[in-house]
Amino acid sequence: MIPVNEPLLDGNEKKYLAECIDTGWISSEGPFVSKFEEMFAEFCGRKYGVAVINGTASLEVALYAAGIRPGQRVVMPSFTIASCAIAAIRLGAVPCLVDMDPETWCMDVAQTCRIVERGDEHTAAVMPVHIYGHPVEMDPILKICDKYRVKIVEDAAEVHGAEYCSEYLAAEPGATVWKKCGSFGEISSFSFYANKIISTGEGGMVVTDDPEIAERARSYRNLCFGKEERFRHEDIGYNFRMSNLQAAVGVAQVERIYELVAKKRQIAEWYKNRLGEVSELRLQPIREWARPVHWMVALELDRKLGLTAEVAMQKLKEKKIGTRPFFMGLHAQPSMRYLVETPEGGCPYTDSAYRYGFYLPSGLALTEEQVDEVCRELKEIIANAGK
Ligand SMILES: Cc1ncc(COP(=O)(O)O)c(C=O)c1O
User: Any idea what the CATH number is for the domain that residue 31 is in?
Assistant: First the structure.
């Protein structure tokens, strides 16, 4: 079986975990937690990091810390994981959905800006979600959110190390600057689930430059304990604390994050060399202002082929090749129907991507021979489609 993902844990992970056991520091009080927070925040170009139990909790912490309150609207793509909407809904906020941009597979930026421009006081935040390793086009969002004082709460779960070339944030007019995803807006959220570029098994982190936002995040992840009187809680918080064991793995992973990102880019290059010219499929487009990290090598089948992602994935499974489907749009989730705002014309690009898109084995342990095999089988499936 060629799995869709397999993490690489051959750095200092074992050594640091043994250190936790030997010293007895296994809870969130242990020293690896703050070390991991400092190292990862620095990697993102942020001042503060607050580590939590997973990327879903991290999104909730981020929205809470940014000050999002019940009844407020958070603009986000329909083409994303349920976690984005769930985080907003749990805080009583309303996910306001936009369709996918077929040229980035990230949120439709023009649609996003139009919603912010309405100037409705309930529109409190935009959540750019960088998809499959490719950044959202940030400049128009940064500009409009500055103008209307709307917060930016970034979901950078899938883009550790990706960069976006910004004119808006450059020091001088006419200049540009490359900025890491996870450095935009008020606060940014990451996941360290086992399939992410760096992993702690389960885990997440918010990063920010604002000390008050960081403090609110710390408070929310720790039951909002009272500052003066510990057991007099200041708000409804949760226990979202990351353990020292997870953080120990995290530190070992951040130590080699550039190497892991380089491996992801290498895998994408292997696939591009073999699939780039296949006219019946389209790999995720790369825009000139993006330095993606190719978290997952994803593709859309040409609908004229008459082959859906579901069928292609099943055929690959029979060849012992693991894949994952694309997200079903949030607008199409029966559980969310009455909890989200959907654009008038629906989200046709999201619907189409769901039907024809999937991603290929992309884990850090993947070899070029395995990529060869995946591409050979996929090409054969395409050649036999409709026969
Ligand atoms: C874009 C995005 N946001 C958030 C999450 C949630 O992270 P977690 O699985 O750690 O809760 C994921 C998970 O895959 C994700 O892809």
Answer: 3.40.640.10
- The CA-based angle 258-264-269, given to 5 degrees, is 125
On whether residue 6 sits in a domain, the answer given is no
Is the CB of residue 81 below 6 angstroms from any atom belonging to ligand 1? yes
Domain boundary among 254, 281, 307: 254
188 lines ligand 1 (CB under 6 A): no
Ligand 1 atom closest to Cα of 195?
A: 14
* Nearest in space to 323 (alpha carbons), one of 293, 386, 281: 281
Q: What is the pLDDT of residues 335-383, one digit of tens each?
A: 998 999 999 999 999 999 999 999 999 999 999 999 999 999 999 999 9
Residue 104, ligand 1, Cβ within 6 A = no
Overall pTM > 0.85: yes
